[in-house]
Amino acid sequence: MRDAALRARRDGLAYLALHNHGGTTEVAFSQVDMASHERGYPAIGRITKQVVGAVVCTPYAAAGDLWLPDGSRVPLGELVVPGSALRRLRPNLAQVMGSSELFDRQSRLFGAAGQACFADMRVAIVGQGGVGSLLTEYLARLGVGSLLLIDGDNVESTNLPRLLGARRRDVGRPKVALGRRNARRANPSVEVKTMKSRVEHSQSLQALSQCDWVFLAADSHAARHWVNAIVETYLIPATEVGVMVPVDDAGDVGRIHTVYRRMTPGQGCFWCNGLIDATELAIEMLPDAERKAARYIEDVPAPSVITLNAVAAGQAATDFMLAVTDLHQEEVADQQLQFVRTGQTAGLLSRQDPDCRWCGDAGLPTDASLATRIASADPRERAAWWSPRHLLQTVRRRRTEDR
Protein backbone atom coordinates (compact mmCIF):
# COMPACT_ATOMS: atom_id res chain seq x y z
CA MET A 1 0.00 0.00 0.00
CA ARG A 2 2.79 2.40 0.87
CA ASP A 3 4.62 1.83 -2.41
CA ALA A 4 1.43 2.19 -4.47
CA ALA A 5 0.47 5.37 -2.60
CA LEU A 6 3.93 6.89 -3.18
CA ARG A 7 3.73 6.05 -6.88
CA ALA A 8 0.32 7.74 -7.03
CA ARG A 9 1.77 10.84 -5.36
CA ARG A 10 4.63 10.92 -7.88
CA ASP A 11 2.09 10.91 -10.72
CA GLY A 12 -0.06 13.60 -9.12
CA LEU A 13 -2.82 11.10 -8.24
CA ALA A 14 -4.58 9.92 -5.10
CA TYR A 15 -4.39 6.37 -3.72
CA LEU A 16 -7.77 4.60 -3.59
CA ALA A 17 -8.30 0.90 -2.94
CA LEU A 18 -11.33 -0.53 -4.77
CA HIS A 19 -13.32 -3.73 -4.32
CA ASN A 20 -16.80 -5.02 -5.16
CA HIS A 21 -19.78 -6.14 -3.10
CA GLY A 22 -22.88 -8.04 -4.09
CA GLY A 23 -26.11 -6.22 -4.82
CA THR A 24 -27.11 -3.64 -7.42
CA THR A 25 -28.42 -0.23 -6.29
CA GLU A 26 -27.14 0.00 -2.70
CA VAL A 27 -23.71 -0.54 -1.17
CA ALA A 28 -21.82 0.10 2.08
CA PHE A 29 -18.54 -0.93 3.70
CA SER A 30 -18.56 -3.85 6.12
CA GLN A 31 -17.32 -3.54 9.70
CA VAL A 32 -14.21 -5.45 8.69
CA ASP A 33 -13.61 -2.93 5.87
CA MET A 34 -13.95 0.05 8.21
CA ALA A 35 -11.63 -1.46 10.80
CA SER A 36 -8.93 -2.03 8.18
CA HIS A 37 -9.28 1.58 6.97
CA GLU A 38 -8.77 2.86 10.51
CA ARG A 39 -5.64 0.77 10.93
CA GLY A 40 -3.97 1.68 7.63
CA TYR A 41 -5.10 4.95 6.07
CA PRO A 42 -3.97 7.43 8.75
CA ALA A 43 -0.41 6.13 8.40
CA ILE A 44 -0.50 6.15 4.57
CA GLY A 45 -1.89 9.69 4.65
CA ARG A 46 0.96 10.88 6.88
CA ILE A 47 3.47 9.42 4.43
CA THR A 48 1.96 10.82 1.22
CA LYS A 49 0.38 14.08 2.53
CA GLN A 50 -2.43 13.39 0.03
CA VAL A 51 -5.95 11.98 -0.08
CA VAL A 52 -6.07 8.20 0.51
CA GLY A 53 -9.04 5.94 0.94
CA ALA A 54 -11.24 3.16 -0.38
CA VAL A 55 -14.19 2.70 -2.71
CA VAL A 56 -16.65 -0.19 -2.82
CA CYS A 57 -18.86 -0.77 -5.88
CA THR A 58 -21.83 -2.61 -7.25
CA PRO A 59 -22.97 -2.21 -10.88
CA TYR A 60 -25.21 0.76 -9.95
CA ALA A 61 -23.86 2.08 -6.65
CA ALA A 62 -20.58 3.17 -5.05
CA ALA A 63 -19.49 4.29 -1.58
CA GLY A 64 -16.17 5.75 -0.51
CA ASP A 65 -14.21 6.44 2.67
CA LEU A 66 -11.69 9.25 2.14
CA TRP A 67 -8.95 10.38 4.53
CA LEU A 68 -7.79 13.94 3.86
CA PRO A 69 -4.27 15.35 4.40
CA ASP A 70 -5.42 17.32 7.47
CA GLY A 71 -6.47 14.07 9.17
CA SER A 72 -10.22 14.52 8.65
CA ARG A 73 -12.40 11.79 7.18
CA VAL A 74 -15.24 12.27 4.68
CA PRO A 75 -17.49 10.02 2.56
CA LEU A 76 -17.20 9.97 -1.23
CA GLY A 77 -19.87 12.12 -2.89
CA GLU A 78 -20.19 10.08 -6.07
CA LEU A 79 -18.21 7.98 -8.54
CA VAL A 80 -18.54 9.17 -12.16
CA VAL A 81 -18.02 6.65 -14.97
CA PRO A 82 -17.87 8.45 -18.35
CA GLY A 83 -18.74 6.61 -21.56
CA SER A 84 -21.66 6.09 -23.91
CA ALA A 85 -23.62 6.06 -20.64
CA LEU A 86 -22.58 8.67 -18.07
CA ARG A 87 -23.08 6.82 -14.80
CA ARG A 88 -22.97 8.72 -11.53
CA LEU A 89 -22.84 6.15 -8.75
CA ARG A 90 -23.77 6.89 -5.13
CA PRO A 91 -24.36 4.64 -2.08
CA ASN A 92 -28.14 4.67 -2.66
CA LEU A 93 -30.50 5.63 -5.44
CA ALA A 94 -31.20 9.35 -5.52
CA GLN A 95 -34.53 10.32 -3.98
CA VAL A 96 -36.61 12.34 -6.45
CA MET A 97 -38.84 14.83 -4.68
CA GLY A 98 -41.86 15.40 -6.91
CA SER A 99 -41.66 16.39 -10.58
CA SER A 100 -41.90 19.59 -12.57
CA GLU A 101 -44.97 20.14 -14.75
CA LEU A 102 -42.72 22.13 -17.10
CA PHE A 103 -40.87 18.95 -18.10
CA ASP A 104 -43.79 16.53 -17.89
CA ARG A 105 -43.82 15.45 -21.54
CA GLN A 106 -40.13 14.72 -21.86
CA SER A 107 -39.83 13.09 -18.43
CA ARG A 108 -42.38 10.54 -19.70
CA LEU A 109 -39.43 9.23 -21.75
CA PHE A 110 -36.74 9.00 -19.06
CA GLY A 111 -38.74 9.40 -15.84
CA ALA A 112 -38.51 11.83 -12.95
CA ALA A 113 -35.14 10.38 -11.94
CA GLY A 114 -33.77 11.00 -15.43
CA GLN A 115 -35.07 14.57 -15.37
CA ALA A 116 -33.39 15.07 -11.99
CA CYS A 117 -30.07 14.00 -13.55
CA PHE A 118 -30.20 16.97 -15.92
CA ALA A 119 -31.03 19.39 -13.12
CA ASP A 120 -27.97 18.18 -11.22
CA MET A 121 -25.51 18.84 -14.07
CA ARG A 122 -23.25 21.72 -15.05
CA VAL A 123 -22.60 21.74 -18.79
CA ALA A 124 -20.22 24.04 -20.70
CA ILE A 125 -20.65 25.23 -24.29
CA VAL A 126 -17.47 26.60 -25.84
CA GLY A 127 -18.53 28.81 -28.75
CA GLN A 128 -21.79 30.69 -29.10
CA GLY A 129 -22.02 30.84 -32.88
CA GLY A 130 -24.57 29.08 -35.08
CA VAL A 131 -24.18 25.64 -33.48
CA GLY A 132 -23.44 26.85 -29.95
CA SER A 133 -26.53 29.07 -29.75
CA LEU A 134 -28.73 26.11 -30.71
CA LEU A 135 -27.06 23.84 -28.15
CA THR A 136 -27.66 26.44 -25.45
CA GLU A 137 -31.37 26.48 -26.26
CA TYR A 138 -31.65 22.68 -26.43
CA LEU A 139 -29.83 22.06 -23.14
CA ALA A 140 -31.83 24.70 -21.30
CA ARG A 141 -35.08 23.14 -22.54
CA LEU A 142 -33.87 19.67 -21.52
CA GLY A 143 -33.63 21.03 -17.99
CA VAL A 144 -29.84 21.18 -17.46
CA GLY A 145 -29.42 22.95 -14.12
CA SER A 146 -26.32 25.03 -14.84
CA LEU A 147 -24.77 26.27 -18.09
CA LEU A 148 -21.32 27.78 -18.67
CA LEU A 149 -21.09 29.77 -21.92
CA ILE A 150 -17.64 30.73 -23.28
CA ASP A 151 -17.02 32.92 -26.35
CA GLY A 152 -14.82 35.98 -26.85
CA ASP A 153 -16.65 37.44 -29.88
CA ASN A 154 -19.36 40.04 -30.39
CA VAL A 155 -22.35 39.68 -32.68
CA GLU A 156 -21.81 40.89 -36.26
CA SER A 157 -24.51 41.63 -38.81
CA THR A 158 -23.51 38.56 -40.83
CA ASN A 159 -24.21 36.38 -37.75
CA LEU A 160 -27.89 37.33 -37.51
CA PRO A 161 -29.35 34.68 -39.90
CA ARG A 162 -27.91 31.81 -37.86
CA LEU A 163 -27.78 33.03 -34.24
CA LEU A 164 -30.87 31.83 -32.43
CA GLY A 165 -33.01 34.72 -31.22
CA ALA A 166 -30.64 37.38 -32.57
CA ARG A 167 -32.03 40.82 -33.41
CA ARG A 168 -30.52 43.74 -35.31
CA ARG A 169 -30.00 45.72 -32.14
CA ASP A 170 -27.86 42.85 -30.81
CA VAL A 171 -25.05 43.70 -33.27
CA GLY A 172 -21.99 44.61 -31.21
CA ARG A 173 -23.17 42.79 -28.09
CA PRO A 174 -21.24 39.78 -26.70
CA LYS A 175 -22.49 36.49 -28.11
CA VAL A 176 -22.55 35.04 -24.60
CA ALA A 177 -25.11 37.70 -23.61
CA LEU A 178 -27.48 36.37 -26.28
CA GLY A 179 -26.86 32.84 -25.05
CA ARG A 180 -27.77 33.84 -21.50
CA ARG A 181 -30.96 35.53 -22.72
CA ASN A 182 -32.01 32.51 -24.80
CA ALA A 183 -31.29 30.02 -21.99
CA ARG A 184 -33.30 31.94 -19.40
CA ARG A 185 -36.17 32.47 -21.80
CA ALA A 186 -36.27 28.72 -22.42
CA ASN A 187 -35.90 27.75 -18.76
CA PRO A 188 -36.22 30.51 -16.14
CA SER A 189 -34.72 28.27 -13.42
CA VAL A 190 -31.44 27.57 -15.25
CA GLU A 191 -28.25 29.00 -13.76
CA VAL A 192 -26.11 30.64 -16.47
CA LYS A 193 -22.50 31.77 -16.15
CA THR A 194 -20.95 33.61 -19.11
CA MET A 195 -17.30 34.26 -19.91
CA LYS A 196 -16.40 36.64 -22.74
CA SER A 197 -12.96 35.19 -23.34
CA ARG A 198 -11.05 32.69 -25.40
CA VAL A 199 -11.09 29.15 -24.12
CA GLU A 200 -7.32 29.04 -23.44
CA HIS A 201 -7.51 31.81 -20.84
CA SER A 202 -6.78 30.50 -17.36
CA GLN A 203 -10.17 31.56 -15.96
CA SER A 204 -11.99 29.72 -18.77
CA LEU A 205 -10.01 26.54 -18.24
CA GLN A 206 -10.47 26.57 -14.50
CA ALA A 207 -14.23 27.00 -14.97
CA LEU A 208 -14.33 24.13 -17.48
CA SER A 209 -12.57 21.86 -14.99
CA GLN A 210 -15.63 22.14 -12.71
CA CYS A 211 -18.14 20.95 -15.33
CA ASP A 212 -19.77 17.56 -15.86
CA TRP A 213 -19.78 17.74 -19.69
CA VAL A 214 -18.29 20.08 -22.31
CA PHE A 215 -19.68 20.87 -25.77
CA LEU A 216 -17.11 22.23 -28.22
CA ALA A 217 -18.82 24.37 -30.86
CA ALA A 218 -15.79 26.46 -31.82
CA ASP A 219 -13.88 25.54 -34.97
CA SER A 220 -10.28 26.29 -34.04
CA HIS A 221 -7.22 24.17 -33.32
CA ALA A 222 -6.59 26.06 -30.07
CA ALA A 223 -10.11 25.30 -28.83
CA ARG A 224 -9.70 21.62 -29.73
CA HIS A 225 -6.36 21.41 -27.97
CA TRP A 226 -7.48 23.02 -24.74
CA VAL A 227 -10.77 21.14 -24.52
CA ASN A 228 -8.75 17.98 -25.22
CA ALA A 229 -6.52 18.92 -22.27
CA ILE A 230 -9.54 19.39 -20.00
CA VAL A 231 -11.02 16.02 -21.03
CA GLU A 232 -7.84 14.05 -20.41
CA THR A 233 -6.60 15.94 -17.34
CA TYR A 234 -9.86 16.19 -15.39
CA LEU A 235 -11.63 13.14 -16.89
CA ILE A 236 -14.61 15.14 -18.13
CA PRO A 237 -16.48 13.85 -21.21
CA ALA A 238 -17.01 16.26 -24.10
CA THR A 239 -18.67 16.47 -27.51
CA GLU A 240 -17.38 18.36 -30.53
CA VAL A 241 -20.12 19.52 -32.88
CA GLY A 242 -19.69 20.95 -36.36
CA VAL A 243 -20.71 21.21 -40.00
CA MET A 244 -18.45 20.86 -43.04
CA VAL A 245 -19.58 22.67 -46.19
CA PRO A 246 -16.83 22.35 -48.84
CA VAL A 247 -17.09 24.88 -51.68
CA ASP A 248 -14.21 25.25 -54.15
CA ASP A 249 -13.06 28.40 -55.95
CA ALA A 250 -15.36 27.62 -58.86
CA GLY A 251 -18.38 27.52 -56.55
CA ASP A 252 -18.90 23.76 -56.77
CA VAL A 253 -20.36 22.29 -53.57
CA GLY A 254 -18.77 19.11 -52.24
CA ARG A 255 -19.90 16.51 -49.68
CA ILE A 256 -21.73 18.48 -47.01
CA HIS A 257 -21.77 16.64 -43.72
CA THR A 258 -22.57 17.25 -40.08
CA VAL A 259 -20.58 15.61 -37.31
CA TYR A 260 -20.49 15.15 -33.59
CA ARG A 261 -17.57 13.49 -31.83
CA ARG A 262 -17.92 12.25 -28.29
CA MET A 263 -14.64 12.47 -26.38
CA THR A 264 -14.35 9.95 -23.56
CA PRO A 265 -11.25 10.28 -21.33
CA GLY A 266 -8.56 7.77 -22.23
CA GLN A 267 -10.26 6.50 -25.40
CA GLY A 268 -8.71 8.46 -28.27
CA CYS A 269 -8.04 12.19 -28.17
CA PHE A 270 -8.00 14.95 -30.82
CA TRP A 271 -4.25 14.57 -31.32
CA CYS A 272 -4.49 10.82 -31.96
CA ASN A 273 -7.26 11.38 -34.50
CA GLY A 274 -5.34 14.02 -36.47
CA LEU A 275 -7.80 16.80 -35.65
CA ILE A 276 -5.23 19.34 -34.41
CA ASP A 277 -2.69 20.94 -36.73
CA ALA A 278 0.40 21.93 -34.71
CA THR A 279 1.27 24.82 -37.02
CA GLU A 280 -2.24 26.28 -36.85
CA LEU A 281 -2.23 25.80 -33.08
CA ALA A 282 1.04 27.71 -32.84
CA ILE A 283 -0.41 30.62 -34.81
CA GLU A 284 -3.72 30.69 -32.94
CA MET A 285 -1.95 30.85 -29.57
CA LEU A 286 -0.15 34.08 -30.48
CA PRO A 287 -1.43 37.54 -29.51
CA ASP A 288 -3.81 39.06 -32.09
CA ALA A 289 -1.28 41.27 -33.89
CA GLU A 290 1.33 38.53 -34.22
CA ARG A 291 -1.30 35.99 -35.25
CA LYS A 292 -2.34 38.14 -38.21
CA ALA A 293 1.29 38.76 -39.20
CA ALA A 294 2.11 35.04 -39.07
CA ARG A 295 -0.54 34.08 -41.63
CA TYR A 296 0.63 34.06 -45.24
CA ILE A 297 -2.88 33.22 -46.51
CA GLU A 298 -5.90 35.13 -45.26
CA ASP A 299 -8.72 33.23 -43.60
CA VAL A 300 -11.89 32.90 -45.67
CA PRO A 301 -15.10 32.34 -43.67
CA ALA A 302 -16.65 28.95 -44.32
CA PRO A 303 -20.31 28.68 -45.44
CA SER A 304 -22.78 28.38 -42.57
CA VAL A 305 -26.53 27.71 -42.69
CA ILE A 306 -28.81 27.49 -39.66
CA THR A 307 -30.65 24.37 -40.84
CA LEU A 308 -27.39 22.43 -41.18
CA ASN A 309 -26.27 23.69 -37.77
CA ALA A 310 -29.57 22.42 -36.34
CA VAL A 311 -28.92 18.90 -37.67
CA ALA A 312 -25.52 18.75 -35.96
CA ALA A 313 -26.70 20.34 -32.72
CA GLY A 314 -29.77 18.09 -32.54
CA GLN A 315 -27.69 14.93 -33.01
CA ALA A 316 -25.19 15.96 -30.33
CA ALA A 317 -27.82 17.01 -27.81
CA THR A 318 -29.73 13.76 -28.35
CA ASP A 319 -26.57 11.69 -27.78
CA PHE A 320 -25.95 13.66 -24.57
CA MET A 321 -29.55 13.07 -23.45
CA LEU A 322 -29.27 9.31 -24.01
CA ALA A 323 -25.90 9.15 -22.23
CA VAL A 324 -27.12 11.02 -19.15
CA THR A 325 -30.28 8.92 -18.84
CA ASP A 326 -28.55 5.62 -19.73
CA LEU A 327 -30.87 5.00 -22.68
CA HIS A 328 -28.29 3.94 -25.26
CA GLN A 329 -29.19 0.36 -26.09
CA GLU A 330 -25.60 -0.60 -26.89
CA GLU A 331 -22.14 0.87 -27.24
CA VAL A 332 -22.44 3.56 -29.89
CA ALA A 333 -19.81 4.99 -32.22
CA ASP A 334 -17.64 7.84 -30.94
CA GLN A 335 -18.21 9.85 -34.12
CA GLN A 336 -21.40 10.19 -36.11
CA LEU A 337 -21.41 11.76 -39.58
CA GLN A 338 -24.48 12.58 -41.65
CA PHE A 339 -24.08 13.38 -45.34
CA VAL A 340 -27.09 15.60 -45.82
CA ARG A 341 -27.18 15.62 -49.63
CA THR A 342 -27.44 11.84 -49.89
CA GLY A 343 -29.01 10.95 -46.53
CA GLN A 344 -26.16 8.55 -45.73
CA THR A 345 -24.74 8.23 -42.23
CA ALA A 346 -21.50 6.80 -40.88
CA GLY A 347 -20.29 5.87 -37.40
CA LEU A 348 -16.59 5.84 -36.57
CA LEU A 349 -14.56 4.73 -33.57
CA SER A 350 -11.82 6.99 -32.25
CA ARG A 351 -8.19 6.04 -32.85
CA GLN A 352 -5.79 5.87 -29.92
CA ASP A 353 -1.99 5.90 -29.91
CA PRO A 354 -0.71 3.87 -26.91
CA ASP A 355 2.21 6.31 -26.61
CA CYS A 356 0.04 9.44 -26.66
CA ARG A 357 0.94 11.77 -23.80
CA TRP A 358 -2.73 12.67 -23.39
CA CYS A 359 -4.90 9.56 -23.74
CA GLY A 360 -2.33 6.76 -24.06
CA ASP A 361 -0.43 4.67 -21.54
CA ALA A 362 2.38 7.22 -21.40
CA GLY A 363 0.20 9.57 -19.36
CA LEU A 364 0.44 13.29 -18.76
CA PRO A 365 3.60 15.12 -17.64
CA THR A 366 3.97 14.99 -13.87
CA ASP A 367 6.12 18.07 -13.22
CA ALA A 368 3.11 20.31 -12.48
CA SER A 369 -0.61 20.29 -12.86
CA LEU A 370 -2.25 21.77 -15.94
CA ALA A 371 -4.13 24.36 -13.91
CA THR A 372 -0.96 25.52 -12.15
CA ARG A 373 0.91 25.98 -15.43
CA ILE A 374 -2.01 27.84 -16.97
CA ALA A 375 -2.53 30.18 -14.04
CA SER A 376 1.12 31.25 -13.94
CA ALA A 377 1.70 31.88 -17.64
CA ASP A 378 0.99 34.56 -20.19
CA PRO A 379 -0.22 33.77 -23.77
CA ARG A 380 3.34 33.62 -25.17
CA GLU A 381 4.37 30.99 -22.63
CA ARG A 382 1.25 28.94 -23.23
CA ALA A 383 1.96 29.00 -26.96
CA ALA A 384 5.50 27.79 -26.34
CA TRP A 385 4.38 24.78 -24.29
CA TRP A 386 2.19 23.26 -26.94
CA SER A 387 3.70 24.77 -30.13
CA PRO A 388 7.41 24.19 -30.67
CA ARG A 389 9.31 27.30 -31.72
CA HIS A 390 10.53 25.72 -34.96
CA LEU A 391 6.89 25.51 -36.14
CA LEU A 392 6.54 29.26 -35.83
CA GLN A 393 9.82 29.72 -37.65
CA THR A 394 8.58 27.41 -40.41
CA VAL A 395 5.38 29.43 -40.82
CA ARG A 396 7.29 32.70 -41.04
CA ARG A 397 9.79 31.24 -43.54
CA ARG A 398 6.98 29.98 -45.76
CA ARG A 399 5.34 33.38 -45.57
CA THR A 400 8.60 35.08 -46.64
CA GLU A 401 9.11 32.62 -49.50
CA ASP A 402 5.55 33.20 -50.65
CA ARG A 403 6.20 36.92 -50.84
Characterise this structure.
The chain is of the alpha/beta class. The chain is 37% helix and 18% strand. It contains 13 helices and 14 strands. The strands form 3 sheets. The protein has an 8-stranded mixed sheet with strand order 9-8-7-10-11-12-13-14, with helices on both faces. Strands 1-2-3-4 form a 4-stranded mixed sheet. A hairpin with a 5-residue loop joins strand 5 and strand 6. Helix 4 runs parallel beside helix 5 and helix 4 runs parallel beside helix 10. The longest helix is centred in the last third of the chain and has 19 residues.
List the helices and strands and how they pair.
Blueprint: H1 2-10, E1 15-20, H2 31-48, E2 52-58, E3 61-67, E4 73-75, E5 79-81, E6 87-89, H3 104-119, E7 122-126, H4 130-142, E8 146-150, H5 175-186, E9 191-195, H6 202-208, E10 213-216, H7 221-234, E11 238-244, E12 257-263, H8 278-284, H9 288-294, H10 306-324, E13 335-339, E14 344-348, H11 370-375, H12 379-386, H13 389-402
Parallel strand pairs: 1-2, 7-8, 7-10, 8-9, 10-11
Antiparallel strand pairs: 2-3, 3-4, 5-6, 11-12, 12-13, 13-14
Helix pairs in contact: 4-5, 4-10, 8-13
